[in-house]
Design brief:
By secondary structure, the chain is mostly beta strands. It is built from no helices and 10 strands. The chain has a domain of 75 residues: Sandwich (Jelly Rolls), CATH 2.60.120.10. The strands form 2 sheets. A 5-stranded antiparallel sheet has the order 1-2-9-4-7, with no helix packed on it. It has a 5-stranded antiparallel sheet with strand order 6-5-8-3-10, with no helix packed on it. The termini are far apart. It comes from Oxalobacter aliiformigenes. InterPro entries: RmlC-like_jellyroll, RmlC_Cupin_sf. This is Cupin 2 conserved barrel domain-containing protein.
Length: 108
């Protein structure tokens, strides 16, 4: 049995083509991410990957729609989204497949 610490992973990504990674692969990316109120990601999209976000605790706003604990948001390739954390300690699980390097495109 091996034991790792999430805090040691690259921004919460523990599966994917990251360093370090528990499973280094381009097939899928998986992260557990924790946010502070006001954390923001500007509008962006992925050309290749589908992104699944599970709100484990707290709440967020994406494209002016509020999501809460238990919501699962699926973002298809080409769909534009932004991200705003509404509560301190919000936690998400994020799955991206396939794990495509450099597949995040900012929207002006």
């Amino acid at each position: 049995m091996k034991v790792f610490q999430l805090a040691d992973m690259f921004r919460g990504w523990f599966v994917g083509n990251f360093d370090p990674s528990i499973l280094k692969t381009n097939d899928v990316e998986i992260a557990v991410k924790q946010y502070s109120k006001g954390d923001y990601e500007s509008p962006h999209f992925h050309e290749i990957a589908t992104e699944i976000t599970v709100i484990v605790s707290g709440s967020v706003k994406m494209n002016d729609i509020q999501y809460k604990e238990g919501d699962i948001i699926v973002i298809a390739p080409g769909e534009i989204t932004d991200f705003l954390c509404l509560e301190d300690g919000t936690k998400n699980v994020v799955v991206k497949y396939p794990g495509a390097n450099n597949d995040k495109y900012q929207v002006e």
